[in-house]
User: Fold these one by one.
Assistant:
Number 1:
Amino acid sequence: MKPMSLAAAFRRISGLTGLSRILGFLRDIAFAAFLGAGPAADAFLVALKLPNMFRRLTAEGALANAFVPSFAEVRDADGSGPAMRLAGEVQTTLLLVLTGLVVIGEIMMPSVIALLAPGFVETPDRLDTAVRLARVTFPYLPMISLVAFWAALANAHDRFSAAALMPVIFNICLIAGAVLIPVYGSASAEQLVAGAPMGERAMPLALGLLVAGVLQLVFMGAVLIRAGIMPAWYLPQLAPAARRMWRRFVTASAGAVAMQINLIVDLVLASLIGVGAISWLYYADRIVQLPLGVIGIALGTALLPRLSAQFRADDLAPVRQTLADAMIVASFFVLPASVALVMIGPDIIGGLFRYGAFSMADAQASGVALAAYAIGLPGHFLVKILQPAFYADHRPGLVLGVSVAMVATNIILSLSLMPHFGHVGLALATSISGLLAAVALMAAALRAGYVGALPGAILVRILACCGMMAAALAGIDLVMPPVSGVLRMAVLVGAGGAAFLITAFVLRAVPRQLIRG
């Protein structure tokens, strides 16, 4: 079977990811309307972060980065049978280890939550509620980790659509949970916001998470069975191929642990700032995740199996071309997104989430954090694009070194900036450390020969389009009547986007890969 082109894989993944992100916005609007940015929201977001952090370590991140190149290597050398045997051993190990982890986590949950959010100790209601919710959400870990592993296996067979559809199921279930918040408490939304028990208000969301896990398992399993690529359940034998894969996983997971430490540091410090800080950062991060998810993660997912095949051919010319294409496509989306989010971040937050329990003050606080996060968006994109090259070339140690340096930088900057800028200082620290990580990976990629000369002319044209968009946004802001909310956001986003696209077509700044698509 002929491998899918990078552009085709990117379009397929980014389209479904875009649908998921739209549903994610609807989910977060429901969160904001019913939970706001107060103690109930803080408690649920801490409970949700726990399985998400472990998921990125076990399957979606480190294991996928170690497994996909190893699976392709065994399949090319020994055939499909040994490769599927390796997959069967990995999935059995994954399920057994994570089930044990859930049992331990359920017992130790009060201590775990106190460690993740020490500021909750001063507000016992938030602490108790977070513990209750986390005990419900933590069993989602083995379910979504197995789903993510199956998705990596599907991606290794150039089947990207099913994996990209999984977040759609997740968002639909959490939207349903948010809608049921008033029903669950047998009260109106206003009464719930005013003073119903926090656990009662957030519990439908936790239960919706478990339903999502079950549905994702059923759907992804059915896809693999229908495609004939569902691995059997083998007890681990630790054959040479498996030992090599697990060694790579240990190094890759160390890098993933470093990245998760970044998230934990932000969570711990935000819990110390006061009620609402965790939620302000969450809603700002959700907006930043739209371009990062639709473009950055889609490119990273499509790149890993493609680069793995190109490195096995022992010719760096296709690698350089693939990475150059990815960076140009990413630049066309990320540079205008970064400029726009810095300029109109508060307007976007207000237009999307300023409903119900989410106050104007919450919108302003979250909007400033969004602008700070947006500064680092180009760096995070570049990291998403370059990391698969090092994993495909079996060099996870370099990614680990950069990740550790990034964590240390983030911690130092967070502790330095937080006393002066509060929660915005945490967002700035994340952005600066991400930019530095991108610079380090780019320098390493240049030394290794993964990256050649980039087409500078089109990059200059894209930057000129961003400048035109920025001028348009500034002009509209000056002449627009004093309106707020959805109307202001729609005018700014629509006019800014139109200014960028029209200028891009005039200056021929649209990447040829997208024109061919």
Note: The two ends are 21 Å apart (CA to CA).
Number 2:
Amino acid sequence: MALDGITIANMVYELKEALLGGRIDKIHQPLADEIVFSVRGGVGKNFKVLASANSNHPRMHLTQYGKDNPMTPPLFCMVLRKHIAGGKIVDIYQPDFERILVMDIESANELGDITKKHFILEIMGKHSNLILTDENYKILDSIKRISHDTSSVREVLPGKQYQSPPSQGKMNPLLATEEAFSAVLQQQGGKKLQQAIYQNYTGISPFMAAAVCFEADLDAACACECLDPISAHALFTAFQGIMQKVKDGAFCPTVFYDQKTNRIMEFGVISLRQSALYQCKYYSTVSELLESYYREKDNTLHIRQKSHDIRRMIQSNIERCVKKKEIQIKTRKEIQDKDLWKKYGELITANIYAVEANTTLLRVTDYYSEAMEEIEIPMDPMKTPSENAQYYFAKYNKAKRTLTALSVQEKQNEEELQYLESVLNALDAAKDDADLSEIKNELADAGFIRRPQIKKGAQKPKKAKPMHFISDDGYHIFVGKSNLQNDNLTLRFAESTDLWLHTKEIPGSHVIIRTNGSGEVSDTALQQAALLAAYYSKARQGSMVPVDYTLRKNVKKPSGAKPGMVIYLTNQTIYVTPEEDSVLSIRSADEAN
């Protein structure tokens, strides 16, 4: 969901109101494409600003959250500290309503002279960038350096002259006149009204273009050539009305949800008649909206990137276990006739003196069968009858030894496969770096990876905690995010009378419902806990997922079992379909705190 020019206009409005006259204090670069800096506000307050050039979620807004910073600041961070630390923010603006935000900063150079720097955020999808230039727009550095090999159109390198992104020939909607607006529509022919608006004016998203049509009581899919003068005037009036709200700073940050599925459809910052078609959630500031919307998405992307190597290693080991299992199944089929080989050896021995020389097929009575029918035994004519018997006995004994070893190997392989799938599920449930650190330590204990080395002086990773929810009727529900958490949650944290839940024979999280000693829970709490157990399992996308539940006292951990592996008795089973909307509606105690 891209940020349009109207949302950026709201960002500029809010940042100017809070930061103009303020001085930049601390500057950090927690991620490769993200800058966080503190501002001692000109209105007597301190603010924290996040500027991100993330390919998926580029933006700049006030933030309330801190992030862990690397021990050694990246180069771009050092350049910013050199040039704008202590600098005064003198202007923030949006050139030509483009998806660009510029912050002008006055700071002292090496000689003590006050100079102006331009800190520029370009929002262009995967080409988004953060760029610092001097007062003459000479590039000092950028968070993403773009060489001629990457782009033949526009280089972004230290020492180069900054150039704005190539224009697409669009017009500034804030300067639109009715005459020019009507002329544009007349030139579009059979193009839809919605397309004509967002393809000819900067900063207008398809959603906002549709909203303009809705404000004018026109169909967004109507062809421009079918527009009469009255309708064209109504469309411009609606367009101008929205732009006037932007000029007046009359913003209304809103997230729009589908009324049936409760899924996020869009967000915007202007009050619209179209809002009646959606379920809306309003925010007091655009920073709050963007922080709420992007924080989880950014964190999910960050965790996915940091866990990539571990995930690949686990999947590789799972594939190895699956191949080993196929070989074991094939081997078991190959030795399934071992008892017949033993019978062949004994029948050859019993009839050894009646065997003709050089025979290839021996017909004898099967004394082991009640019917005493004849049986045919393949023989090697190059061997004596005694050697043929010994061949079958040797084949039987080898198969017997293989079967004994195979049974142990199958059990070990199945346990390893279940364990690896449970770790893969834990990676899907990981919420932060602490969860990843715990999973890495667990894999190191199991011998799959080397134990992560903590650099001298580095901060110790935070201890990961289980997820904490509260049912609609007040029961506390806890969900483990890794095998170590599952063990701790079930074997140490939970009381014997608490209710324990887990998906039936499916890798997933352990779930505990606090019963406060009663051993009983409501149907609502049981249903919601089962939904969480199914959602945080390998069966997340399934339907009618079986979830076992029993009192915690019935759950035991076998000696020598891998983390997260338990056995239980006297359980009951509930079947649930873990629809995302139902799960997300369960109140999180972690967010409440």
Note: The mean pLDDT is 90.
